[in-house]
């Protein structure tokens, strides 16, 4: 009988120990889980625009992480299926502006002087418009995440020398992020106009303000070349940029802004996340684009007009 009670006591103690371990494991699991949208929203009922995109994450996943600026909580937002736009993002109006060369003496209508570019930046500042990064725009288009009240994205095409000499210093002065679209065959070539060197390009790519986008190898009209040539322009330019800059290149910019279904498919298969386009007379806001592989832009001359319509999502849909 004594042996029976001893065995019963040992069994009871063992069960109590197992229960404690299970509770500890459960507590650990709760601590390591990402907070749910509902949990964060209950603490931040007026979450609105206080979200900051978590850096160094893949934006092609099924969820994108943000931090609340008020308390540094992590919020995980579900994404729309690639390459579609999230329904909540359709409420916003984000102008993407297209610039080309910046030089002291303009040669064609697409050029700007450094003084004129500064006036553009001053207009953006005085209008209380907030330049955002391409990553911010993509995260917004995929999740419907709120943006600053008046957002804008600045893009510079073709990798001109004036981008490093004039545009980049002004961007740093104002703290404005921007996208530079590079066609690789002209890097370091100064025939006619100057172009960025690989060293200058690497300096810019290492700056968190700057996003580098592939603009093909030789800047052809992609809709008018063979399948083999199209593949080379889209795929090899990505490989060259990533090798030279030692960083992923996730975005493509169509030469002349032109694309068709064939070009979009090749860009998607090359593992780009999104592509920037341009077309007249169909210039429109990014949120009015067909999908992530045809992000629309405005020519720089329309800046004063479109910033009056710039608008980020008013609130986070999941917290309403």
UniProtKB/TrEMBL annotation:
Kindly give the InterPro entries that the UniProt entry links to this protein.
Answer: Glyco_hydro/deAcase_b/a-brl, NODB_dom, Polysacch_Deacetylase
Q: From what superkingdom does this record's organism come? A: Bacteria
Main subcellular location of this protein, as a coarse class: secreted
Where in the numbering of this chain does the NodB homology domain appear? 150-320
Mind listing the UniProt keywords for this protein, alphabetically?
Signal
GO BP field: carbohydrate metabolic process
Instruction: State the protein's name.
Output: Polysaccharide deacetylase family protein
